[in-house]
Amino acid sequence: MNINPLTTTAQALVVPGKGLLAMDESTGTCNARFAALGLPETIEARSAYRELLVTTPGLGEGISGAILFDETIRQHTAAGVSLVEILQQAGIIPGIKVDLGAHELAGFPGEQVTEGLDGLRPRLTEYAALGARFAKWRAVLTIGHDRPSRAGIAANAHALARYAALCQAAGLVPIVEPEVLLTGSHSLARCAAVTEEVLHEVFAQLRMQGVALEGMLLKPSMVLAGADCPKQPTTAQVADATVACLLRTVPAAVPGVAFLSGGQSPEEATRHLAAMHERFAGRLPWALTFSFGRALQQPALEIWAGQAANVAAAQQALLERVRGNMVAITAGSAV
Ligand code: 13P
């Protein structure tokens, strides 16, 4: 395996001042977000929305890569240009979500394992031919009384590592995404302990499967208290807990860490990212940036509301979120 092109791509994705746009919602997830706003759950509406996102003027100023979904990587604008081409012209690297979603883990009620390893090799080859240069696979871990179990953590870490190895063999940079969900009433300390355990297992499995750390990126959740926890931490406490966890688990050879937003409000996600930069600038071995979905898109989606007349305003809202996060990862000043 030639890891140099992989390393070049991985480094380009976390180039200083830029982050990633996660726009890889599956059809089900995209429909659910549309339904919540009373928008039609049709392929036409999804296509119009994805076209709005990628044609945002100036998007490439702060976005290094965009994660697409199977439907989207094959999509063309109303004018007949492929979305992949639009992204490339804007200097944005196209990527693709390749997992097939989280499903119930047999024998462990309430826990999930991500599926999609069967047949992954030819799918990766096809995506690379369609223009993808990196991929994403999301594992989901839920915190509960005695969850996640060792079995749940091991199964998900193993799948992430198998996926990552297959990606590198196909010439794609794997983004390894173990998400510890925000759902629950757990404390910040419990989330820190679980996230640390998960990341240790993920990197052990990556090593076992021979994944080149220089040619991958990590996409973790921030260390947060559960959404229903009565004692919510300060921004500085979240920043400190998250960075401490990463420093203990993520080898310095990994070029970058790009956070998911995981249901935080757009402002909150940006504030937490900014605080990490403010408090640890110059002391971290990897780039620290964003790979947000909802925290970049939600305001734009709400403003668009399915109306062609709102496209420019929605694109402006997307750009504002991108710029806020660019400030967070460069100057590190809060939004
Ligand atoms: P959120 O930022 O909305 O969590 O989405 C990121 C992502 O890629 C989820 O898999």
From TrEMBL:
EC identifiers of the protein: 4.1.2.13
Coiled coil feature spans: none
Alphabetized Gene3D superfamilies for the sequence: Aldolase class I
Keyword Magnesium part of the UniProt annotation: no
Signal peptide segment: none
Catalytic reactions on record: beta-D-fructose 1,6-bisphosphate = D-glyceraldehyde 3-phosphate + dihydroxyacetone phosphate
NCBIfam families: FrucBisAld_I
Protein name: Fructose-bisphosphate aldolase
Native species: Hymenobacter nivis
Organism taxonomic ancestry: Bacteria, Pseudomonadati, Bacteroidota, Cytophagia, Cytophagales
